[in-house]
Every structure is written in structure tokens, then in C-alpha cells.
Amino acid sequence: MRRYDYVAWKDEGKWVVHSPSVPGVYGLGTTKKRAEKDFVAALSTLLEYLSEIGERPPTPRPLSIGTMEV
After folding, report:
1. SS (H, E, C) the chain
2. How do residues 14-41 score in pLDDT, each as one tens digit?
């Protein structure tokens, strides 16, 4: 089992979940919880596919989020 850090944000009334470790895979939902579930489903599908074709899964990378004033 792999652990992927992710970010979640609200955009135009919907929640978006994404892991920079997995380009192109997003979860969307009306709530953060639904977006997380959607992301897990999309990521699971990708990981299954990669396994079927003999490719390695994306390597999880640590993620740090902060705020800066500029």
C-alpha cells in the first residue's frame, strides 16, 4: 500500500483533490469527502492499469503546504 499526499481546494463551488505525485489524476465532488473518494477511485483505477501493463506506480513524494505573503 502506498500513501500519497494530496491537496484539496474549492473551485467554482466544487471541491478538487490532487496529488502532485500523480499528474493528471484528480477527484471532484460537491463536498471534500466526495472529492477524496473520487480521487481514490481514479487513483486506484490508474494503479490497476499500470499493474496490468507491467508499469511501476508513481513514487509518492512528500508534500508541504504553506502560505507566503508577497
Report:
1. CCCCCCEEEEECCEEEEECCCCCCCEEEECCHHHHHHHHHHHHHHHHHHHHHCCCCCCCCCCCCCCCCCC
2. 999 999 999 999 999 999 999 999 999 9
